[in-house]
Amino acid sequence: MVATPEFMPVGTHAAIRGIAMREIDAVGARMVLSNAYHLYLRPGDVMVRALGGLHAFARWPGPMLTDSGGFQVFSLAAFRTVSERGVEFKSTIDGSRHQYTPERVMQIERNLGADVIMQLDELIAGGSEYAASRQAMERSLRWLARCRVEFERLGREGRASLPAMVVAPGAPPMRTDDDVERVAPEQALFPIVQGGVHDDLRRSSVRGILDSGAWHGVAVGGLSVGEAKVDMYRTIEICEPELPRDKPRYLMGVGFPDDLIEAVRRGMDLFDCVAPTRMGRHGTVFTRDGTIQIGKSSHRTDRRPIDDDCLCPACTDYDKAYLRHLFAAQEPMGPRLLALHNLAFLLRVMRDVRATLAAGTFSSWSTEWLARYRARGR
Question: Beta-carbon neighbour count of residue 101 at 10 Å?
Answer without folding.
Answer: 19
